[in-house]
Amino acid sequence: MDTANANENIDAGKNSNIQNMDIAEEAQINLNLKNKTPKLPISKIKKIAKTDPEYMTTSNLAYIATAITTELFIQSFTERTLSLNQIRTKSKNKRLVYEDLAECVVKYEEFQFLGDVVPRTKNLKSLVKENKVRYTTQQVEEIDD
Fold first, then answer.
1. What is the rounded distance in angstroms from the CA atom of residue 72 to the CA atom of residue 80?
2. What burial letters (b/e) apply to 87-102, b meaning 16+ CB within 10 Å?
3. How many CB atoms lie within 10 A of CB 30?
């Protein structure tokens, strides 16, 4: 019986230590969020959030966290796109074009949810050959009034 009580006391001590660590960790995260100033304007993030039909009032820390995670997402997307561009062109070109972004969306699974927003473009000539688009090269005369 004494060993069972001792084990319970040890478990209770571990749980309180874990809870204390969680509280301290959460406080540290909150402090880091307060100290970090996002580059995206919080007012714009609030305005975008309020357009959601299921919007509910949110703390400023949530908006700051949203801004920071958005910046991290954009940074990750840009870095992946840039690395693809450099591999494909075998140069240190730091200029990204739409096709690079579309290629990144197709290639990496974590960006595939952007497929509708950043679709791959197709050459008009190839679409005409595949009979997916009708296009004529006849010029239309402008009518002068």
1. 12
2. eeeeeeeeeeeeebbb
3. 13
Amino acid at 7: N
Pick the CATH number of 2-116 from 1.10.10.10, 1.10.760.10, 1.10.20.10, 1.10.510.10: 1.10.20.10
In a structure prediction context, what are the per-residue pLDDT tens digits for the chain, which is 145 residues long? Answer: 455 555 455 455 545 555 666 787 777 777 766 667 888 899 999 999 999 999 888 888 889 889 999 999 999 999 999 988 888 877 776 788 888 899 999 999 999 999 988 888 877 777 777 776 676 666 434 444 4
Cβ contact 135:124 at 8 Å? yes
Ordered by start, the domain boundaries in the chain are 2-116
Q: How far apart are CA 49 and CA 131, in angstroms?
A: 43
Contact 61, 33 (CB under 8 A): yes
Amino acid 76 reads S
Q: Are 50 and 44 in contact (CB under 8 A)?
A: no
